[in-house]
Amino acid sequence: MEIERKFLITSLPENLDSYSFLHIEQGYLCTEPVIRIRRQEEEFYLTYKSRGLLVREEYNLPLTKEAYLHLIPKLDGILISKKRYLIPFEFDNCVLTIELDIFEGELAPLIVAEVEFATEEAAKAFIPPKWFGEDVTYSMDYHNSILSQKGLKHLSVKRI
User: Fold this and answer.
1) CA distance 80 to 26
2) Calpha distance 72→78 (Å, rounded)
3) What is the C-alpha to C-alpha distance for residues 157 and 109, in angstroms, rounded to an integer?
4) What is the mean pLDDT of residues 1-11?
5) Cα 59–62–68 angle (5° rounding)?
6) Is 80 exceeded by the pLDDT of residue 154?
7) Nearest to 48 by CA among 23, 5, 66, 56
8) Residue 159 has pLDDT above 70, yes or no
9) Which of 98, 103, 105, 142 could form a disulfide with 87 if both were Cys (CB 3.0 to 4.6 A apart)?
10) Of 115, 118, 103, 111, the residue nearest 148 (C-alpha)
């Protein structure tokens, strides 16, 4: 089960370069249900995600590099590239991880932060840091599966 809130970012956090990051490439074979392939550095996954906004089922299965490359031509939409920073954030006596995605290519200059929680109650009680912008948890427009299909033309994305 994935319990996650999503926010647009209007200004980057201080000392961004001091945090670790991953290079991620992902695409969608299907958007209902969501079937995704992902390359995260040199690891490869096939993911199933159920419908939902704040709470969704999510299952990750390992893929070989060869299987990943075989599936790329079958994508329904663009292949998304992004740099994901992993930023620790203390909230309510718990250390959470902010996943700050800086999109590249066709989806630049979009920047989105996601935070995962253990419970719905924790997600709803979360108070984001000041550098977070609009909460888009309940907007399908910012799901990566939708962005892979529609790009940015249906959104008003500002440059930082």
Assistant:
1) 5
2) 10
3) 7
4) 94
5) 110
6) no
7) 56
8) no
9) 98
10) 103
Sorted by sequence, the CB contacts under 8 Å of residue 5 that are 6+ apart come out as 54, 114, 115, 117, 123, 126, 128, 135, 137
Residue 21 has pLDDT above 60, yes or no: yes
**Residue 130: how many CB atoms within 10 A of its CB?**
7
By DSSP bridging, strand 20-31 and strand 43-49 are unpaired
The single residue listed with the structure tokens 């074979």 is: 29
Give me the count of residues in the chain. Answer: 160
HSE-CB of 151 using CA atoms within 13 angstroms: 5
Give me 77's structure tokens: 């939409």
Contact 50, 114 (CB under 8 A): no
Give catalytic residue positions.
Answer: 28
Residues 148/28, Cβ–Cβ less than 8 Å: yes
Which amino acid is residue 63, in one-letter code? L
Strand partners, 2: 56
**Is 62 within 8 Å of 44 (Cβ atoms)?**
yes
Phi and psi at residue 65, to the nearest 5°:
-60, -40
* Mean of pLDDT values over 75-101: 96
**Domains, the chain:** 2-150 (2.40.320.10)
